[in-house]
């Protein structure tokens, strides 16, 4: 290594160390130097506005969505405020008994933009992109009732398009490094049950497959998506399973009995999640430990669905915004019932968590035990990768 490159490397390390200190007092490091890109794929649980640009009924672009967002306006997020990707890139200090992790410093502390946003250009490409679209599933025929949504095949196509834009901006070597050092979040599966297999009695897929066979098919198709992400350069992929599908207010209103979670959808989740976890183990054995990180969304959700008071919630059976039994029927609109204190509700609308519930979910993904995230939590991943990156620069 030349004297110039050695001193240059020390300068970058010093800048990154300084960025850590600066971030600790609430300022941001330059994303182009120290930040880690963040890419998001999946459905409405992680969509931050792509569907606003599409002709679809799966939109969250009207009040009271966004009522607790910093702008107090709807953004396309299916939440009263921040969603899971926002919180992962938030600068909130997450404390545990043994350590404190400043998540925003690691990921750049800047929320990623929807891929379809006209603002996603130039240096903002280095922050990453959100490709998620409400209504999509693992299968291309999931969510057909929503018409124009970004199905997974197109989300991956857009990711390829994004990488071409990035190469044009910073060159092939730097673009490849940005993707390889990124964190990826993918959330899929719920719609393949709720908006496909169980959408109507005797649905096409339910006539084609028994539930166990359908789950095996879903998991095999999901595996192809994950392998494609690896082939496109992703090396840290957080994969969430489905939550307790039968406990959502919409399902309680339509299928539940006496407020109990719907048995058939709980069975679907109980079949899907273990099989997905085994696939992730196999992929890690093939590509390297920790490439795919399994987030146990079912366990996290079920903890506060089964015992909401332990987390400071008043109810996990009623949506904050909606109408009908459990506020679980129809859309959340300005005419809907709206709770006064969103922090007391697990569910914001018929299917989606409140911001506060999302914060509980992310805290477990970031610092939780192996019961919640495996083979390591996200804080451990980020710290380990930061050390490796510093060693590479030395």
How would you summarize this macromolecular structure in one to three sentences?
By secondary structure, the protein is an alpha/beta fold. The protein is 42% helix and 10% strand.
Can you offer a commentary on this structure?
The protein has 13 helices and twelve strands. A hairpin with a 4-residue loop joins strand 2 and strand 3. The termini are close together. The protein has 394 residues and is of the alpha/beta class. The N terminus is likely disordered. It is globular, with a radius of gyration of 21 Å. 42% of the residues lie in helices and 10% in strands. It has a single domain, classed as Rossmann fold (3-Layer(aba) Sandwich). The strands form four sheets. Strands 4-1-5-6-7-12 form a six-stranded mixed β-sheet.
């Amino acid at each position: 290594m030349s004297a110039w490159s050695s001193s240059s490397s020390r300068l970058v390390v010093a800048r990154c160390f300084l960025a850590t200190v600066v971030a600790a007092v609430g300022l941001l490091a330059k994303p182009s130097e120290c930040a880690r890109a963040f890419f998001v794929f999946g459905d409405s649980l992680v969509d931050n506005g792509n569907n606003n640009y599409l002709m679809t009924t799966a939109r969250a672009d009207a009040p009271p969505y966004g009522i607790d967002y910093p702008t107090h306006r709807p953004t396309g997020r299916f939440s009263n405020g921040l969603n899971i990707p926002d919180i992962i890139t938030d600068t909130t200090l997450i404390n545990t008994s043994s350590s404190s992790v400043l998540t925003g410093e690691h990921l750049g502390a800047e929320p990623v933009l929807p891929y379809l946003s006209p603002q996603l250009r130039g240096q903002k490409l280095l922050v990453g992109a959100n490709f998620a679209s409400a209504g999509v599933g693992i299968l291309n025929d999931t969510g057909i009732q929503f018409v124009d949504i970004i199905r997974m095949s197109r989300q991956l196509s857009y990711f390829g398009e994004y990488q071409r834009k990035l190469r044009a901006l910073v060159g092939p070597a730097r673009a490849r490094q940005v993707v390889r050092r990124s964190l990826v979040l993918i959330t899929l599966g719920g719609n393949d049950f709720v908006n496909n297999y169980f959408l109507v009695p005797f649905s096409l897929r339910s006539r084609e497959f028994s539930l166990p066979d359908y789950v095996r098919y879903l998991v095999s198709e999901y595996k192809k998506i994950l392998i494609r992400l690896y082939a496109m350069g992703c090396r840290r992929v957080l994969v969430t399973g489905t939550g307790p599908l039968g406990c959502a207010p919409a399902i309680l209103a339509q299928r539940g009995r006496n407020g109990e979670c719907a048995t058939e959808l709980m069975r679907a989740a109980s079949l899907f999640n273990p099989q997905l976890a085994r696939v992730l183990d196999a992929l890690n054995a093939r590509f390297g430990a920790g490439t795919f990180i399994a987030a146990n969304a079912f366990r996290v959700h079920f903890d506060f669905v089964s015992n909401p008071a332990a987390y400071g919630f008043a109810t996990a059976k009623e949506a904050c915004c909606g109408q009908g039994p459990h506020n679980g029927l129809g859309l959340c609109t300005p005419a809907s019932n709206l709770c006064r204190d969103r922090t007391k509700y697990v569910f914001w609308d018929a299917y989606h968590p409140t911001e506060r519930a999302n914060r509980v979910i992310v805290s477990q993904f970031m610092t939780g035990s192996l019961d919640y995230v495996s083979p390591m939590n996200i804080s451990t991943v980020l710290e380990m990768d930061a050390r490796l990156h510093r060693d590479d620069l030395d």
